[in-house]
Design brief:
Largest sheet of chain A: 6 strands, parallel
Helix content of chain A: 25-40%
Number of helices of chain A: 11
Oligomer: homodimer
Number of strands of chain A: 12
Distance between the termini of chain A: 92 Å
Radius of gyration of chain A: 27 Å
Largest interface: A-B, 70 and 71 residues
DNA sequence: TTGTGTTATGAGTACGTTAACATACCCTTT
DNA sequence: AAAGGGTATGTTAACGTACTCATAACACAA
């Protein structure tokens, strides 16, 4: 039977059988040469390699995967590549993947629409992946009821724990405690909070940490403000606080960008940082964008998080598959936007 | 013969044959149900779907790809995910890929080592990809001699044209002309340049545009400064210029981050922006990080670039495969860091 | 009754790879 | 000369899917 046209191009990739025919050997011998196995006569090897070169052979990923049941790629689902949190996730996972000689199959879900874990895993499972990683930057409506697909490692990057799925995240709650303890030690008590959008999971935990830290010291938390992670929203919030709250001595902004905006607003309002008001952020993300970055903040080891995520998504042979919840602590970076309050 | 253990887990994914056995139908009927084809009896369909559910069937990507010769994924090779240029490339390509219901297979080459196009394509070609995209942020030593693999669409993201490979990029030369014309129209002539690292391709073209624009007006370009794209390096350069060059009236920084640093340096040196010195950047990347971003800059349509890249890497049926070099123009964004020079 | 068309289903095959097994040959050793 | 052992190579089977073709059952019209 004549070969049917293979795909749109009408051509068919060169297979080992083609090379074998050209070199006058069996297809298995081509396989041996391709994989660098011993027990091939040197002349034969050269003849085969010449034929490969000549025909432009490249091994079929599909054939190989079908054969040995592995894809050497891990699926990563995020809803918006450009958000700092997601970017840093990609970076961390990419370096972990590289260490394992593994690629990342990236799927961006709609930036705007709500997405469900079931939908995300369904899409990822149809791709060449040995494991599934889902970035859950906002609460998925089916988080509680979600069951991972059997037979494929699944990790959700989120602070929420799940009874049947391993979850990994930077400790977005603990980072607040680190910062609040730092401010408490300096003597601050009236600490306002500028948060991100309320649907954000990171925001929810950073805010909870702020609130719990205050309540543990029996300080009544004053109404948190809501930004959108951008410097401009931090500026607006900072303006508002400078004009309406004369008792606050410190501001905790839920990321560095808003903290940077808040600092600008305070200074525009005639307040000095840190002499009049201390400001802290989270992420340690300003260095590239701001000269002489002086912001006290928390840095997360995103590569470590990437490694943890990767290794739970693609478990090694013989590893236990117990569901765990991993929280990776951040590190307090004290710079020069925090000081003791005026007495 | 007993089935051999399939992979490390010792289990084997559920195949259509397994479902067929459970449902008492042929494997082909399962295929029909899985793909929603007509001509299946309603009762049979339900029995098969029940069996799929029961066993946890998910179609094998490898089997399907082997069968129809497509992967529905495009390979993307970058050397450092976190750089602004690469991030925005991923974002643009991700949205183009999503429109085509396609995933991205991301490979990060070593951040530090030199990389060759041959090596990059070799690695990408071993992955499940219908096309190859290589981000060449620095000159590859084998660029001139490089031949794309036959049988798979290849696009290099770079400003350099290549006789045998389609290249696509934002117009890093033209953006300089846009900015320089803007400054010329305001009356500037002594325009200094703060560039990125000299190995960067983007840098080379942005600098060339600056230099050519000056020379076209018979103005001798004064020694460009070299930064590393960071705000701090822009600050250093700005400090240097403020102290050593009393005749300059404008600074062109090769990205916004350095421009932002330079502005801070000028102001710290007692110079006003834009009254004493105008400053321009490129990328329009500050908004999230800086409140009240006032920088005059050039914005690139990175989604358009992503689409162009994608569509040339994965050509549609019947498309001509002529090699082209596509340069996507940027758009001048005039804000408030540029004004007429003092007279 | 015979022919024609439709619908549901199954059988066979090809896609490219690699493991396991089989074979053929040459070189030692007894 | 026969036996044994290594080396090079070929043969077969299996991985999971979807296309093509075949078959069987049935409906309807001439």
């Amino acid at each position: 039977m004549a070969r049917r046209p293979f795909n749109d191009t009408g051509t068919r990739p060169v297979s080992m059988a083609d090379v074998a025919r050209a070199a006058g050997v069996s297809q298995q011998t081509v396989s041996r040469v391709a994989n660098g196995l011993p027990n091939v006569n040197e002349q034969t090897r050269q003849r085969v390699q010449a034929a490969m070169q000549e025909l432009g052979f490249r091994p079929s990923y599909a054939g190989r995967s079908l054969r040995d049941g592995r894809y050497h790629s891990v699926g990563l689902c995020v809803n918006d590549v450009t958000k700092f949190g997601n970017l840093s996730m990609i970076d961390g996972i990419a370096s972990a993947a590289r260490e394992h000689n593994c690629a990342i199959t990236l799927v961006e879900m709609s930036k705007t629409e709500e997405f469900s874990l079931a939908e995300a895993t369904r899409r990822m499972a149809a791709l060449p992946v040995d494991g599934i990683i889902i970035g859950m930057s906002r609460m998925a409506p089916d988080f509680e009821t979600f069951d991972p697909l059997p037979g494929i490692g699944t990790v959700i990057v989120t602070m929420y724990a799940h009874p049947r799925v391993t979850t990994v995240d930077s400790d977005h709650y603990g980072c607040s405690l680190l910062l609040m303890d730092h401010l408490f030690e300096l003597g601050h008590e009236q600490i306002r909070f500028i948060g991100g959008p309320s649907f954000s999971v990171d925001e929810q935990f950073r805010r909870a940490g702020w609130q719990d830290a205050l309540e543990r010291k029996h300080i009544e938390p004053v109404e948190p403000l809501e930004g959108d992670w951008s410097a401009n929203s931090g500026y607006e919030a900072g303006r508002y606080l400078a004009e309406h709250d004369r008792t606050m001595t410190a501001i905790y902004a839920a990321n560095d960008q808003m903290a940077n905006g808040a600092i600008a607003a305070l200074r525009d309002s005639g307040l000095r940082v840190p002499e009049d008001v201390s400001v802290v952020g989270v992420d340690d993300s300003l260095d590239d964008f701001v000269a002489h970055n002086e912001l006290t903040t928390v840095r997360f080891d995103l590569h470590q998080r990437g490694r943890e995520v990767f290794e739970h998504a693609v478990p090694k042979a013989g590893a236990t598959d117990k569901t765990v919840a991993i929280r990776i602590p951040g590190q307090l970076i004290v710079r020069h936007t925090t000081a003791a309050p005026r007495t």
